[in-house]
Amino acid sequence: MATRQLQAPASSSALTHTLVVIGQMLLLMLVWAIFFLWALLATERLLIPWIGTLMGGQSFLNQFFTSFIGAYLPAFVVVLISLMLFFYRMPRSQEKVSVPLEFALTIMLFIALQLFVIGFALPWAMDCLPTATSLSFEQLLPFNLLPFQTCLSPGGGLLFTTLALMVLFWLQGSEHLWQPLRQKLA
User: Fold this and answer.
1) Model-level pTM?
2) What is the SS3 assignment for 107-153?
């Protein structure tokens, strides 16, 4: 009869490391969900009014983006790009443990910058932008985040958002930008 050997319990540092990685992944998934909601708000408050003023309220694009699929499509694409960059960077990264946290931090910084500069999700800024949709995501943030009103035109807000998204995706896709920061923190 063979005897079974008992394995030594995992060391506390390995358990701590595993819990940190799981926590970072859960944080990243939560941040991606918030990023998706932000993209829904951006579609409603920036893209639809811009298309409406540029092409008229009855254009095919305006009707498409006011539909359920059209409202969710830009949000899905933006989160999918971030997800693809995550899976691109994860195997190539020298410090794999910090990649989920880097992605979560860059997305949170991006959303905070967007809310600060544009203010499209704030209740008192809703009057600045024309409402061209029956979708109503404005209940997601029913409180004032800023003490002053910031309201860009839909075209200006869309341009700023596009440039900020390009910077976000560049930061997420570049491993070399994070190496000096990791060395300073280590």
Assistant:
1) 0.71
2) HHHHHHHHHHHCCCCCHHHCCCCCCCCCCCCHHHCCCCCCCCCCCCC
> Residue 29 is encoded by which pair of tokens?
């998934």
Residue 172 near residue 89 (C-beta atoms within 8 A): yes
Helices 48-55 and 154-173: angle between axes, nearest 10 degrees? 130
One-letter amino acid of 40:
L
Contact status, residue 96 vs residue 90, Cβ threshold 8 Å: yes
DSSP string computed for 66-92: HSHHHHHHHHHHHHHHHHHHHHHHHHH
Q: Are 130 and 157 in contact (CB under 8 A)?
A: no
* Mean per-residue pLDDT, 97-102: 86
For CA atoms 51, 57, 62, 66, the dihedral sign is positive
Mean confidence (pLDDT) of the chain:
74
Over residues 48-71, the pLDDT tens digits come to 777 777 766 667 777 777 777 888
- And the tokens for 156? 């200006």
